[in-house]
Specification:
Layout lengths: L9 H5 L7 E4 L19 H11 L13 E5 L1 E3 L17 E6 L18 E4 L17 E4 L22 E4 L1 E4 L13 H4 L5 E4 L2 E5 L2 E3 L2 E2 L5 E4 L2 E5 L2 E3 L2 E2 L6 E4 L1 E2 L2 E2 L1 E5 L2 E3 L2 E2 L7 E3 L2 E6 L2 E2 L3 E2 L6 E3 L7 E6 L2 E3 L2 E2 L3 H4 L1 E2 L6 E2 L5 E8 L3 E5 L2 E3 L10 E6 L14 E4 L3 E2 L14 E2 L5 E2 L5 H5 L16 H9 L7 H12 L2 H6 L51 E2 L5 E2 L6 E4 L2 E4 L1
Parallel strand pairs: 1-2, 2-4, 3-5, 4-7, 5-8, 6-9, 7-10, 8-11, 9-13, 10-14, 11-15, 12-16, 13-17, 14-20, 15-21, 16-22, 17-23, 20-24, 21-25, 23-27, 24-28, 25-29, 26-30, 27-33, 28-34, 29-35, 33-36, 34-37, 35-38, 37-39, 38-40
Antiparallel strand pairs: 18-19, 31-32, 41-42, 43-44
Length: 576
């Protein structure tokens, strides 16, 4: 993946308008007592942990404040030194910047990613290079409190003004191993420290990060419980779980703990489940936007190897898939062992590996898909196993937050129509007339011999010729004007209108290249625009990095707009 420049959320960018402090951090396995003002006086993560353990939720008692930036030197960090251990809980919204090079002096311009000096959070305490017994259980533990997220009246607001996002820029997280059984009750205390990255009733954001080689019963890569989250330009791979969400699992939805967030320009591949569902992504409760992302090459035992919106019947799920590719995910169960037909009713249960290999929508999730590709993959590349399954009885909730609906909006490609739909579900399924849903849409027809694991960019490039052939059959890709209209609608959704989350740029594909900007020309569905990128992956240009927005005085200290004198902005001196 060509990782882009830093794109800060509105919440993080706003912190630049208050006086914040920069700190420098180097690898080390004990607190130093240093002030962190320079590389020579650098902290370790244990200094940060020590502060959090003492101050806890009391901001006035904390040496470090919301919005403070910590510049991490390249190297390997061990957030806990205890086998099976969980790192100290972080309460505040810090900005962690990885990949810094101390030989370059004070940080005046953030690194570009991937960095030549990568910063790694590792749980590999036994140094065998994989997630295994003896390693740390978790690498990040962010939690605020039981009533910090939102109110019963508005599930999208943050009721505690002290809650800010803990953001990681340019980090690698690897080798967390959790051999514990999944908790019998998914309460906040039980979920704390579950997953290599754990956020419980808090706010966690990852930019240009890799999460890989982790193991747990569920949610081995990243676990989100009643929290805000934002993932951009990240890769999740080689994560392994027994059930439900090997790479990313999002859960819980009550009046004061409602999970919601975005997954943008990310790649999920080579994640594995021993059983079911959602080897890459599992949304069991809450709201998720998957935008300009690729989910491919993930494996489960039965159903939903790619993405699943599925869970307790009394919970609500709202899943949006926009400009994304979910294709080539596989279920390895023997279909003859999974298909079970009731001799009297003819009802088919547990359909398994012939349907829903890529996407499972169940328990009345509210779902819509816009300008995306969902296609299954088979060994011989000729048989189109249905990639989508929709099933399960209606939930018992009298007045659900979202009315059950399933909409395929604008131009989508799926390997076939909807393979398993219970009779009472057709009433809320909207297929539309511009979608191409047919058995001829095999993985080989759309992508040829591509293998996501062989591509440095972790994208699947659809065949321009094949899509043009569908257009000749009057399945028309959307115009840029259509996507701008849809983006305007997206901006009115509560997640963006209320929290200040940045509305994803739907005119930019996963690689950062601009989609076909001609209003009279079609562009391609999925995460990669074959029309705008006719030369393939090798010809893709990375998006220009965003302006940094921070200012520094000549001593390397960050200052706000009220400062007068010579400042450094994006590496240049400016007189204010």
């Amino acid at each position: 993946m060509k990782l882009k420049g830093l794109l800060l959320t509105a919440a993080v960018a706003a912190s630049a308008n208050v006086m914040a402090t920069d700190y420098y951090v180097k690898p080390g396995n004990a607190a130093t007592g240093n002030d962190g003002s320079s590389w020579d006086k650098a902290l370790t993560i244990w200094d940060i942990y020590q502060n959090e353990a003492v101050a806890k939720k009391v901001e006035a008692d904390s040496k470090y404040k919301n919005g403070d930036a910590f510049f991490f030197a390249g190297g390997t960090y061990y957030p806990t030194l205890e086998a099976g251990g969980v790192p100290q809980r972080i309460y505040r919204g810090y900005i962690f910047v990885g990949g810094c090079d101390p030989t370059q002096g004070p940080v005046t311009t953030w690194p570009t990613y991937p960095s030549a000096t990568p910063t790694i959070f590792s749980g590999d305490l036994n140094a065998d290079g994989v997630a295994s017994p003896g390693d740390a259980r978790s690498l990040v533990n962010m939690r605020l409190g039981s009533k910090g997220m939102n109110t019963a009246e508005d599930r999208y607001t943050v009721s505690d003004a002290s809650l800010k996002p803990l953001t990681f820029h340019g980090f690698e997280f690897k080798c967390a191993y959790n051999e514990s059984e999944w908790p019998s009750s998914e309460a906040a205390d039980a979920m704390t420290g579950w997953g290599a990255l754990s956020v419980v009733q808090g706010w966690l954001e990852l930019y240009n990060c890799d999460v890989h080689d982790t193991y747990a019963a569920k949610a081995s890569g990243m676990s989100v419980y009643g929290s805000l989250y934002n993932l951009r330009d990240c890769r999740f791979y080689n994560n392994h779980a027994v059930q439900t969400g090997a790479a990313l699992r999002v859960n819980i939805n009550t009046d004061i703990r409602y999970s919601r967030g975005t997954v943008e320009r990310c790649a999920f591949y080579n994640n594995t489940l021993d059983d079911r569902y959602g080897a890459a992504i599992a949304l069991t409760a809450g709201e998720m936007y998957i935008v300009n992302s690729t989910v491919s090459g993930n494996t489960a035992y039965a159903e939903g190897a790619g993405v699943v919106a599925n869970g307790d019947k009394n919970a609500t799920r709202k899943l949006h898939i926009i400009n994304s590719t979910i294709a080539g995910n596989t279920c390895n169960a023997d279909p003859t062992e999974l298909y079970k037909t009731d001799a009297e009713t003819g009802e088919v249960t547990n359909p398994g590996s012939l349907v829903g290999t890529d996407l499972r929508i169940a328990a009345d999730a509210n779902f819509n898909m816009y300008n995306s590709i969902v296609v299954g993959r088979t060994d011989d590349g000729t048989v189109a196993y249905a990639p989508i399954v929709m099933k399960d009885a209606a939930k018992g909730e009298a007045a659900p937050l979202f009315e059950p609906r399933c909409e395929f909006e604008n131009y989508n490609i799926t390997g076939s129509c909807l393979p398993l739909i219970e009779a009472d579900k057709w009433s809320y399924i909207k297929l539309g007339t511009t979608n191409s849903m047919q058995a001829a849409n095999t993985f080989a027809a759309l992508f040829g011999e591509q293998d996501i694991n062989a591509s440095a960019d972790k994208v699947l490039v659809p065949s321009k010729t094949y899509i043009e052939g569908l257009a000749a059959q009057e399945f028309y890709p959307p115009y840029v004007a259509d996507v701008n209209t849809y983006a305007a609608q997206l901006a009115t959704e509560p997640l963006f209108a209320t929290t200040g989350y940045q509305v994803p740029d739907l005119t930019v594909d996963q690689t950062g290249a601009k989609r076909n900007a001609n209003d009279d020309a079609d562009y391609c569905p999925g995460a990669f625009d074959a029309f705008a990128n006719t030369t393939g992956i090798a010809g893709v240009q990375a998006q220009k990095p965003a302006a940094q927005k921070y200012m520094y005085n000549l001593q390397g200290q960050r200052v706000n707009d009220a400062y007068r004198g010579i400042v450094i902005v994006n590496g240049k001196k400016v007189v204010k």
